């Protein structure tokens, strides 16, 4: 199918280039219709496929929309897509291939933090330009990367104060035992403390664990007002079924869950009742822009199980890239694009609302919605925050307009001062 | 009173961990202990049992019957795999590791491609009960009861039935068993099917409590291998005491410091056991 699409727009591009050549042959040199290559490395199989399957479709959707309107600065987009199979080594392999052999102008890549950290040194070494379209724990200060997903402070600094105001100040955290879980848990601890709450328990769960009765008992013993769940992967999501079966009945808060793997659609109600998630997009969001996006998506891909946050991140990333390339007068060189980013006004009207790239960290501001899961697994939105900035890196001292350390920082390991 | 509730909670957690270890491991223990095959596709038989069970429930079959169907489906799948692949590799344990690992990869990815990345769950039946401040799912007691029933069933089959005696004879001295008129091929085939069927039973029993994805079998594998390594080759003398000891370690460590330490406890137990009892608990109990 992608080959057909490719053929179709090769033909369209050819026809288009004749027309353009006829009309403006004196101004536009003939190489102007040479395509812009976007490399796409996403997990279409393996353990993460469930959460990432909509990303490739979203990129394809944005690409088709942009190509139908004449491409980026007059050049059509060509996608080079590889299935990275949820494996870190595949990312390393394909990142080299897509940058060296396919000579992609930009690459959209990665789901888990370990995947991103696996390919990032290669991107630095080959001086590529990569969009990571995924929510994550935050802290990557790297000039080769633009990160369109929401970061910890955008989701947690909105979620936790609201939860503590609504349910009480005693918090229990269970988190996946790897970089995302650790750093998010660190953020939780800090924001709970800042708001005068008490962390009554914290448990790190190794990936692949699927049995939680002892954890459920530990939670009951600590008597929290609500439970923060930062669980990752399919085995860990068994927690919700088991907690619900044991009648734990505590409000839950999370920055993941619902917004990636649509647990509220997959589990039998009321397994996930009373879960609260802050997200920059899920398909239930009730604004005209979001609804129009979902309708366009479903028209093109009626089979798609759910349009999640990462699909929208990937979609808006294509438009952000278009914006910066057109500002740079069609150049795809990283230095030219970063000059445009440094001006601080690369924005796009995304399905969630307006989003802009923060020049210091090359992360993106977001509209954050608080999604609450009901008894019947319907979604309501009791709160909404506009234009939430990815503030932490910039405040902590990361400034990519001046210096590129290509490092990931965390609240425990901030950028060096001065 | 508070300590009484806590003590009850500890017993429940022990029972829960014990059930998981026994059910995850017994199929693997039979195939490894009796046939010497290290079955890395064990998790996929578990997944097969779970998927068939859930499909049957979605088709309107009551859960206990659906679990039985899941176990039988896994046993049949085991028979096919044994006939097509495993039987050519008896006495070649290293090759069988590579083979079963390959089967595991093929099955996981084929399931992903044909059935999609997940299946809608069926929900845990039978409600819950509370003792003091702690509440429990009733289904957890069903799991514990099933684990005990499986151990009892295996004891009966392998000690009191004609098939059990023939199977043990075949495993100990195959050519003598064949010379005295036993169809050893059929016995291998049946034994492997029982191992696969028990894996399927574990999958069916845990299906209501878990997320159903093609890779779900892998979350049983650590516990299964740890139990088999600690227990050694004998299912009754090995798996049951190994599961009891490991359940105490796992529940205790998880209560004390959380899941991460529960997992660390299990792995340290394996290292210690391999060092001092290389043939596992059953090797120690049956030493001459």
UniProtKB/TrEMBL annotation, chain B:
Main location: membrane
Annotated keywords: Amino-acid transport, Cell membrane, Membrane, Transmembrane, Transmembrane helix, Transport
Transmembrane domains' residue ranges: 6-33, 65-86, 98-117, 137-158, 187-206, 226-248, 260-278
Localization per record: Cell membrane
Pfam families linked: BPD_transp_2 (PF02653)
Keyword Protein transport: no
InterPro entries tied to this protein: ABC_transp_permease, BCAA_transport_permease
Domain of life: Bacteria
Keyword match rRNA processing: no
Membrane topology (UniProt): Multi-pass membrane protein
Family: Belongs to the binding-protein-dependent transport system permease family. LivHM subfamily.
Protein name listed in UniProt: Branched-chain amino acid ABC transporter permease
Organism expressing this protein natively: Kaistia terrae
């Amino acid at each position: 199918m992608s080959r057909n699409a490719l053929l179709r727009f090769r033909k369209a591009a050819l026809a288009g280039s004749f027309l353009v050549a006829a009309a403006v042959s004196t101004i536009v040199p003939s190489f102007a219709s040479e395509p812009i290559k976007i490399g796409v490395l996403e997990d279409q199989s393996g353990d993460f496929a469930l959460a990432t399957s909509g990303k490739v479709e979203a990129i394809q959707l944005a690409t088709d929309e942009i190509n139908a309107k004449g491409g980026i600065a007059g050049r059509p987009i060509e996608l080079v897509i590889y299935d990275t199979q949820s494996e870190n080594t595949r990312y390393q392999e394909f990142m080299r291939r897509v940058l060296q052999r396919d000579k992609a102008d930009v690459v959209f890549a990665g789901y888990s933090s370990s995947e991103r950290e696996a390919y990032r040194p290669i991107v630095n070494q080959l001086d590529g330009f990569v969009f990571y379209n995924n929510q994550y724990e935050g802290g990557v200060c790297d000039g080769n990367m633009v990160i369109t997903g929401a970061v910890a402070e955008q989701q947690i600094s909105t979620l936790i104060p609201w939860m503590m105001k609504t349910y009480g100040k005693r918090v229990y955290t269970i988190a996946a035992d790897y970089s995302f879980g650790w750093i998010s848990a660190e953020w939780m601890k800090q924001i709970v403390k800042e708001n005068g709450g008490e962390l009554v328990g914290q448990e790190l769960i190794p990936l692949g664990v699927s049995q939680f009765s002892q954890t459920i008992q530990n939670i009951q013993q600590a008597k929290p007002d609500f439970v923060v769940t930062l669980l990752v992967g399919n085995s860990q999501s068994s927690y919700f079924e088991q907690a619900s079966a044991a009648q734990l009945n505590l409000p839950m808060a999370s920055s993941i869950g619902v917004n990636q793997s649509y647990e509220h659609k997959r589990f039998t109600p009321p397994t996930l009742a009373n879960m609260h998630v802050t997200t920059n997009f899920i398909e239930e969001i009730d604004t005209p822009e979001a609804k129009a996006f979902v309708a366009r998506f479903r028209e093109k891909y009626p089979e798609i199980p759910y349009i999640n946050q990462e699909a929208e991140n990937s979609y808006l990333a294509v438009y952000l890239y278009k914006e910066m390339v057109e500002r740079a007068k069609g150049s795809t060189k990283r230095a030219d694009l970063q000059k445009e980013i440094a001006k601080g006004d690369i924005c796009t009207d995304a399905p969630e609302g307006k989003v802009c790239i923060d020049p210091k960290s090359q992360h993106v501001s977001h509209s954050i919605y608080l999604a609450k899961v009901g008894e019947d697994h319907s979604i309501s939105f009791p709160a909404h925050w506009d234009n939430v900035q990815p503030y932490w890196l910039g405040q902590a001292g990361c400034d990519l307009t001046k210096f590129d350390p290509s490092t990931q920082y965390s609240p425990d390991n901030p950028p060096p001062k001065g | 009173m508070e300590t009484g509730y806590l003590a009850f909670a500890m017993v429940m957690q022990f029972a829960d961990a014990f059930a998981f270890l026994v059910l995850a491991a017994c199929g693997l223990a039979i195939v490894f202990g009796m046939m010497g095959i290290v079955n890395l596709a064990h998790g996929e038989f578990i997944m097969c049992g779970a998927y068939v069970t859930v499909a049957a429930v979605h088709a309107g079959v009551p859960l206990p019957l659906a679990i039985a169907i899941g176990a039988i489906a896994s046993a049949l799948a085991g028979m096919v795999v044994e006939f097509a692949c495993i039987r050519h590799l008896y006495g070649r344990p290293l090759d069988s590791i590579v083979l079963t690992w390959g089967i595991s990869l093929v099955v996981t990815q084929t399931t992903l491609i044909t059935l999609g990345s997940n299946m809608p769950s069926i929900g845990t039946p039978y409600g819950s009960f509370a003792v003091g401040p702690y509440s429990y799912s009733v289904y957890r007691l069903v799991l514990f009861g099933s684990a005990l029933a499986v151990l009892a069933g295996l004891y009966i089959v392998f000690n009191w039935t004609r098939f059990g005696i023939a199977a043990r004879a075949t495993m100990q001295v195959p050519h003598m068993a064949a010379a005295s008129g036993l169809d050893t091929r059929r016995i291998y085939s049946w034994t492997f099917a029982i191992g696969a069927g028990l894996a399927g039973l574990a999958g069916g029993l845990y299906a209501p409590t878990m997320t159903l994805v093609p890779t779900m079998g892998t979350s049983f594998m650590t516990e299964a291998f740890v139990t088999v390594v600690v227990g050694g080759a004998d299912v009754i003398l090995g798996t049951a005491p190994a599961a009891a000891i490991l359940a105490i370690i796992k529940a205790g460590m998880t209560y004390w410091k959380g899941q991460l330490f529960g997992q660390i406890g299990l792995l340290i137990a394996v290292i210690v056991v391999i060092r001092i009892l290389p043939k596992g608990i059953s090797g120690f109990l049956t030493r001459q």
